[in-house]
UniProtKB/TrEMBL annotation, chain A:
<protein>
    <submittedName>
        <fullName>Phosphate import ATP-binding protein PstB</fullName>
    </submittedName>
</protein>
<feature type="domain" description="ABC transporter">
    <location>
        <begin position="29"/>
        <end position="271"/>
    </location>
</feature>
<dbReference type="InterPro" id="IPR005670">
    <property type="entry name" value="PstB-like"/>
</dbReference>
<dbReference type="Pfam" id="PF00005">
    <property type="entry name" value="ABC_tran"/>
</dbReference>
<dbReference type="InterPro" id="IPR003439">
    <property type="entry name" value="ABC_transporter-like_ATP-bd"/>
</dbReference>
<keyword id="KW-0547">Nucleotide-binding</keyword>
<dbReference type="InterPro" id="IPR027417">
    <property type="entry name" value="P-loop_NTPase"/>
</dbReference>
<dbReference type="InterPro" id="IPR003593">
    <property type="entry name" value="AAA+_ATPase"/>
</dbReference>
<keyword id="KW-0067">ATP-binding</keyword>
UniProtKB/TrEMBL annotation, chain B:
<feature type="transmembrane region" description="Helical">
    <location>
        <begin position="432"/>
        <end position="456"/>
    </location>
</feature>
<keyword id="KW-0592">Phosphate transport</keyword>
<dbReference type="InterPro" id="IPR000515">
    <property type="entry name" value="MetI-like"/>
</dbReference>
<feature type="domain" description="ABC transmembrane type-1">
    <location>
        <begin position="235"/>
        <end position="452"/>
    </location>
</feature>
<keyword id="KW-0472">Membrane</keyword>
<comment type="function">
    <text>Part of the binding-protein-dependent transport system for phosphate; probably responsible for the translocation of the substrate across the membrane.</text>
</comment>
<keyword id="KW-0813">Transport</keyword>
<keyword id="KW-0997">Cell inner membrane</keyword>
<feature type="transmembrane region" description="Helical">
    <location>
        <begin position="233"/>
        <end position="254"/>
    </location>
</feature>
Amino acid sequence: MTAMMHEQQTLTPAGETRMPETKMTETKMTARDVKVFYGEKQAIKGVSIDVDMDNVTAFIGPSGCGKSTFLRTLNRMNDTVASARVEGTITLDGEDIYAPSMDVVQLRARVGMVFQKPNPFPKSIYENIAYGPRIHGLAHAKADLDVIVEKSLRRAGLWDEVKDRLHDSGTALSGGQQQRLCIGRAIAVEPEVILMDEPCSALDPIATAKIEELIHELRGRYAIVIVTHNMQQAARVSQRTAFFHLGELVEYGVTSDIFTNPRQERTKDYITGRYG
Amino acid sequence: MTGPAILLLLAGLGAIAWVSARARAMRLQSAARASGRRDAVHSLPGYHGWYVALWTLVPAGLFLAVWANVAPGLVTQDVLGSPAAQSLPADDFSRSAILGEARAIATGMQAGAFNPLSQGLVEPYRDAIGQYGFAGAALALVLAFAGGAYAFTRVRPDFRARTRVERLVMATLLIASLLAIITTLGIVASLLWESFRFFSMVSPVDFLFGAKWSPQSAALGYGNDDAFGAVPLFWGTIFIGAIIAMAVAIPLGLMSAIYLTQYASPTFRKWMKPILEVLAGVPTVVYGYFAALTIAPALRDFAVMIGIHGASSESALAAGLVMGVMIIPFVSSMADDSIAAVPQSMRDGSLAMGATTSETIRRVLIPAALPGVVGGVLLAVSRAIGETMIVVMAAGLAANLTLNPFASVTTVTTQIVQLLTGDQEFDSAKTLAAFALGLVLFIVTLLLNIVALRVVKKYREAYE
């Protein structure tokens, strides 16, 4: 036990020590000493972190540092990789999501995900949004579904642009619109947490600005975790920032602190552009 | 001089040309190098060798090929001009029989003459053949020497032999690829020509829309009214190849592709895919045995047991089922390709919404892969309707227009085989009908293939 505590401290020296001076809010997800292996290779080396409801959490770090891998453990998307193995505990509202009793289908309905490249289904805009509610049986009548579709598209900031062509193909939209469609698709099943894996890396600056604005609006309604390797973006959209390096969580704290006053040398080097 | 000897001689000349040209190029080039100008030397000596060898061999070889076709005519001309030919009969048929016999004796393929007239022609023939053979060989050798000498004089350090040789290599490859296309065009042309002859005897409307097929009734002595209505054949082909076979192959092929791409462990997949591909290589005649000897009798017994009338021991169902099994690997591998081409991000997107694997397959993967799968199925149909052995062995010959899968039906390919096996006269409508059927089959499979390939290609582009 002591050994583990010790290990945890060396791995995440600043982990829990600097928790926010801003308002304390309800913790949504917690990870304790999470390790991820791909076959023999260890990709995540004991990460502990809390994700709360009212703050947007950003994961930053150089390419290959494990931030996306860690993000994908939060809704068990790593299950689809045959060689991946996860150790440690991750809870959602205190419930272990890797427990055998946890149904991964329900977990993913509660923890939605938006990917790096917009990946709308080759169906109409309407059907893209209706996909989740249909498979989870959230709407029984067409009218209910219409309401959900409209509400989700409004929240995703896309309604005004597409309301007249809901039955056009989702793949015909622009990249930025497609990404907002994917966010709307995730929102449609009323998740509690939304994971975003570099959601703007394939978008132009204007589309990026729209997504960032959307993240601001969604904050508070959903716990949001965003992976980005754009540090300005992390500074703009998040209130908490976690810096990953070589599979370790180097530093986690209030975004403004991380950027203006990092405690760890590695964080400072990364933020000032020494590597990454 | 005989053929093999002259070829051997030419090969020897080519080898000598290669060696001497290469040696000369080496000598000249080392001299040029000694002079210190690097750009004075262009090609490696080996290229000079090839250049001269090709000049020695190609013109002489081409000449021999032409000569081999022209010489027999010249020989015959010569023989006809000899005094012994004056006594030949006037009619073409017996004249050419005698000439043929004389030639066979002269070249040693036949020992003695049946017709005394030909005996007298053997001597002139022998003379003429020897004369022209010698002339051909001499001309070929002259050409070889001339070509070789011409090329040899061009060997200089800065001569671009490499470029020339490359050009010839390219030309050879081009000709090789054109040959396949030209042959196909030739086949199409002959098909068109024979079909045209058929349609000048039988109206295309009767052929394409007539419902009675009995092309051999005159030959078999059932009266004189041959009928060439091919609708029962078209129906039989579609019934077996496009309906029954596809009813087996589409679901099974698709499901096996889904299992292999989505559920199977990498190890299982690694073993299973090659096994499926081996199935595709089983000769169709083997499937034919199986259909005719195992499936067909079992189906007939089954039909009799459940009280279906008109059950035959050669049935559409037997042929169709076995053909379907034969097509499974084909459909499976096409579907496998198109499912694998759906981006992983699509699958992840659906799974991340909380969809199960089978929901993801049903609602996202299959719709996304559908164009590719449809293209694959069209290709499979075109293979199935052109398939011959299984239907010849298991489907029967009776041209029935029936919906009963236990009855015997016949197909286009079966009838083509039927019409063209054995000794045939190529001027009766009965035989020519085979070409018209072949033409229809050719056009239909061609269209199917074009549509299928376009669909598949368009779909591939969508994800690139």
